[in-house]
Amino acid sequence: MMIGVVLCGGQSLRMGTDKGLLNHQDKLWAKLAADKLTSIGLQVKFSVNPTQEEKYNNYFDKAHLITDTQSLDLKGPLLGVLSAHLVNPNDDLFLLACDMLLMETDVLEKLKQTFAASKAFEAYIFIKNEQQEPLCGIYTSAGLKKILLMLQNGKLNKRSMKFVLSNLKVCEIIVEDKDYRCFDNFNSHAEVNEL
Q: Which of 52, 138, 186, 193 has its CA 20 to 30 A from that of 7?
């Protein structure tokens, strides 16, 4: 099975407030991302850190929250991803960062179809300007098991998503020019105000 995971657990330092709970077009950022994943047929969960759990309970069913596993010696998105993997060890994870406000469902659908057409890879992501976009991607259960094992064996030398990808068999999809804006991250109020 595959589940959608909206990544909301970042520190949001530049924004100064929890990005997942900001409003855009009368919807929470986290809900906007979740709706896009739901529209391509996925059951969705929200990755949050322990300080966010109580607030997110006010908006989302507790059963849909995955709180970072504190025993993992990690920070950043990888902590959210591996925490989600530990809770759903047999599921492939379709990740979407909550701050990719302009993401289009047809781009997500393209990723899902690429995955369905070839099960030969451990991760499926987009490439934009020759850079990997790790926070909108599909990570297989087998690939995540491998990364978790590397972490447990002290072999995960760097804790970034790009290092994770360098250790997986990755299917890379080139972002079409018309879809470039889909991968914009919004980190400050000024950026959002320009929408």
A: 193
Query: Domains along the chain?
Result: 2-193 (3.90.550.10)
Chain center to CA of 87: 15
Strand partners, 131: 128
The dihedrals phi and psi of 119, each to the nearest 5 degrees, come to: -95, 20
Kind and range of the H or E run holding 34:
helix 29-39
Neighbours of 152 (CB within 10 A): 11
Summarised one tens digit per residue, pLDDT across range 112-133 is: 999 999 889 999 999 999 999 9
User: What's the CA gap between 60 and 52, in Å, rounded?
Assistant: 12
**Residue pLDDT, tens place only, 54-113:** 999 999 999 999 999 989 989 889 999 999 999 999 999 999 999 999 999 999 999 999
DSSP 113-154: HHHHH----SEEEEEETTEEEEEEEEE-HHHHHHHHHHHHTT
* Backbone dihedral angles phi then psi of residue 114, each to the nearest 5 degrees: -60, -45
Does residue 70 contact residue 158 with C-beta atoms inside 8 Å?
no
Q: Tokens 């030969």 map to which residue?
A: 120
